[in-house]
Amino acid sequence: MELPFAESWKIKMVEPIRKSTRQEREVWIKEACYNLFQLPAEQVYIDLITDSGTGAMSDRQWAAMMMGDESYAGASSFFNLKKMISSLTGFDYIIPTHQGRAAENVLFSYLIKEGDIIPGNSHFDTTKGHIEGRRAFALDCTVDEAKDTQLELPFKGNVSIPKLEKALEEHHERVPFIIVTITNNTAGGQPVSLQNLKEVREVANRYKKPVLFDSARFAENAYFIKTRETGYADKSIKEITREMFSYADGMTMSAKKDGIVNMGGFIATRLEEWYEGAKGFCIQYEGYLTYGGMNGRDMNALAVGLDENTEFDNLETRIKQVQYLAEQLDAFNIPYQRPAGGHAIFVDALKILTNVPKEEFPAQTLAIELYLEAGIRGCEIGYILADRDPTTHENRFGGLDLLRLAIPRRVYTNNHMDVIAVALKNVYDRRENIQRGVKITWEAPLMRHFTVKLEPAK
Ligand code: F0G
Fold it and tell me: What is the model's pTM?
């Protein structure tokens, strides 16, 4: 008999979590103005709001923290980190930042000016925020297949090459660079193929434009290339990673995801010009160049985290857990963005809460229902997160309205996945009775989902 699959690690430290009653949760969600970001974490049983900064570090990472060099300038921890990033990506210029959006802020301060257009595949919300905040435009060129959650395709995160070519043909003098997000978080944690990265590079070369990878989940992307793309089955994750980045000029990184640290990020590039242009902004916003926004100990832990998470076994354990949850949902016929993404399951709220009008935010309503059901905290990746159109100020109802169940790395077991699946099934079974959603009582002009205040629609 073939041995079943099991995790590539064992557990050395645990943290208790606490269940609550539905009655308690009804009070708490009201106090939080029906915004799950506003809930104190103690009021959550299983926390799937993000996979960002929520992973469990390994014993090797904790050991590396003890060796952190906290020198203001020239710390050995910086050089440890630089060496690891350069070996994985081929990029020699490194700027550490406190997280991914800080890397965006520093680099975009140099690269983006008012009126620019930045084409890419489903820019993440902070990326869009940093573009639109500079009165520039984020132009989404994701393949159309990503919008059909039931299509089973290996690389639904891809950039549509015709859309990209059209954008460059029409606006090339306004395009400072092209951005590719690997994996494509907003489209459901869907990967981008190496073939697609190569094609983006070819188009970019024709128009003499640089290419930036938003690389938060680059290792998961490499796993999907290895397991799904022809010709890569026998290559190591590190070899694939190196090839992926050979098609980019630089990267912004939220190290809180595939770096498996609780805080951190960086810019890495092969272009001296980008480094020279951005470094002053690093000093202004983050810190001196050899620590930017990070501690020595965190840079050390990140160097080890990047090494560990570009090994196949670690990635396989992670992605198979997400796929395990997907199989449980399949058994209950619950629709989600197919195939299961790298870091999360994106439940298709529009296909479940068919009685809730889009003006009452079905995915947010589903997130609230799941919390009330079992104390599980997911995250709306839908109409609230999409913000308003900067010119018309209308809600953007054009895209998907999803409930993201993001799975932290090395944190929960498959027993937790079973609880999540059954809780969602219970909501699914009473979906017909859920008739009303929520309405906004207060919202911020940009990135409103973090602070939005809601109340039940009447
Ligand atoms: N790019 C992508 C693709 C992301 O998913 C994120 C963060 C960022 C950039 C910004 O990085 O949080 O370190 O400043 N995503 C988190 C999430 C917050 O929940 O998906 P950050």
Answer: 0.96
